[in-house]
Design goal:
Length: 441
């Protein structure tokens, strides 16, 4: 790890006083996203993959400030929907830096993207089914296409996020060459793509290597077909997806990115001349740049466990409820004792196993279970770490809870980049039903 650009940022590395000030000023729950760290992560990716096209998977964090930081760091944008394409355009990504990955794309999304392509003909649509090619052609699209392949091998931190091997994603590997050649009759086929899954840890690198090797093989076959009667394709890149994991547990070692890069280059080789490697990490760019701040409002000893009630729940950070994901939690203190006096500093408190639970009416609404924290007291501020990826993005208004605010730190300066939603926002989309049918008096 280079100094000033460490390979991981732990929840203990955040400036506690700064976070406490932000929570006091803006209220909780509050997301904090450090753009300097986003830039560092982009730089580390570029350093490890100097020859590759690096595309940021926008879905991990779509905030405008983050997208602009990523654009300035010279990564491209990989978008999963019309909404993400729209956000990337607004953040200044031109068509040549836009990649739209269409997974069972709704008609509305295809209409939108085909429209964008008229003004931005250099954008690329990544297609995972022959039907999608057909639907694009019907909309007059004849531009750049990348064929997404189901590589038959997947990896990831949870079964629900392993995409490689899941039939939903991509053309089956043994049909991919044929699909790409047929696509080339109508479109400019510029690449092939596969994505193993999300949160690949060091132990899963073999699967990653296998996927990459298969994709290299496919690219060679397409550019230089084994059958002399088959027309060669003029590919620009082989995109081996994202998925690079980051450590969530405090003592978990980070992925050795240069080593992963080396293994990737080796596995994909030899690439035909003129064909580049491409990657599309999301989590790696934004995860450890974000923290979620939440305030303790209830401490309840029970015969089974000590429940610490906080104001952030699964509507703010879904990952623990959805994937049993681990997020580090640090008690920043600031609370009061039962008699109203200031509680001692968290460092002076004993580590106590607690279950941190949110305000949602679901048993699964916990941020951790029976984890040892510096014994929380009412009013304490907790920092939930590694919350910058798939945090705010997966937030919902369930239980009619407005989504939290987000502050971005940029070179030390804080700015609210997403305001806290209000109760009015919850009902803003509602319209009066047509009552005429019922009003028969
Ligand atoms: N490319 C494609 C086509 C993807 O589907 C994804 C993620 C990525 C790139 C970026 O993967 P990453 O580098 O971020 O691992 N909500 C889950 C993660 C779902 C990821 C879906 N696809 C979570 O919170 O763990």
């Amino acid at each position: 790890p280079t100094e000033g650009n460490p390979s991981v940022r732990r929840v203990s590395d955040w400036d506690a006083e700064r976070l406490a000030d932000l929570a006091a000023e803006h209220g909780t729950p509050l997301y904090v996203q450090d753009l300097d760290r986003v830039r560092e992560n982009c730089e580390r990716l570029r350093d490890a993959f100097p020859d590759a096209d690096v595309r940021y998977a926008v879905k991990a964090h779509t905030g405008r400030a983050v997208l602009e930081a990523v654009r300035e760091s010279e990564l491209d944008a990989e978008c999963a929907s019309a909404g993400e394409v729209d956000r990337a355009l607004a953040a200044g990504f031109g068509g040549e830096r836009l990649h739209y990955t269409a997974v069972n794309p709704p008609a509305r999304d295809l209409d939108y993207v085909a429209g964008v392509a008229e003004a931005e003909p250099d954008l690329t649509v990544t297609v995972g089914a022959v039907d999608t090619l057909d639907r694009l052609a019907k909309r007059g699209y004849d531009g750049r296409v990348c064929v997404r392949v189901n590589p038959g091998v997947g990896a990831g931190h949870h079964e629900k996020v392993r995409t490689g091997g899941a039939a939903k994603f991509g053309v089956p590997y043994d049909r991919a060459a044929d699909a790409a050649r047929r696509a080339a009759e109508r479109f400019d086929v510029v690449g092939v793509h596969a994505h193993a899954g999300s949160g690949i840890d060091p132990e899963q690198l073999d699967s990653h290597r296998e996927l990459v090797a298969r994709m290299g093989e496919l690219a060679r076959e397409l550019v230089d077909p084994s059958d002399a009667n088959t027309a060669p394709l003029d590919l620009e890149y082989v995109d081996v997806g994202g998925g690079f994991g980051v450590p969530y547990e405090e003592d978990e070692p980070p992925l050795d990115l240069p080593a992963v890069a080396e293994a990737t280059r080796e596995a994909v080789a030899p690439l035909p001349s003129g064909v580049d490697l491409a990657i599309e990490p999301g989590r790696y760019v934004v995860a450890d740049a974000g923290a979620l701040l939440t305030r303790v409002n209830t401490v309840k000893p029970t015969p089974d466990e000590r429940v610490v009630g906080v104001d952030a729940g699964m509507t703010d950070l879904l990952r623990p409820a959805m994937y049993d994901a681990y997020h580090p939690i640090r008690n920043l203190g600031g609370g009061r004792n039962a008699d109203g006096s200031d509680a001692s500093a968290p460092d002076d408190r004993s580590a106590t196993p607690v279950t941190v639970a949110g305000p949602i009416c679901e048993t699964g609404d916990t941020l951790c279970r029976n984890r040892a924290l510096a014994d929380p007291t009412r009013g304490d501020l907790l920092a939930v770490g590694v919350a910058g990826a798939y945090g705010y993005e997966m937030a919902s208004q369930y239980n009619s809870r407005p989504r939290p605010a987000e502050v971005a730190l940029d070179d030390g300066t804080a700015a609210v980049v997403r305001r806290r939603e209000t109760l009015g926002d919850l009902t803003a989309v509602e319209r009066e039903p047509n009552r005429d049918r019922h009003d028969r008096t």
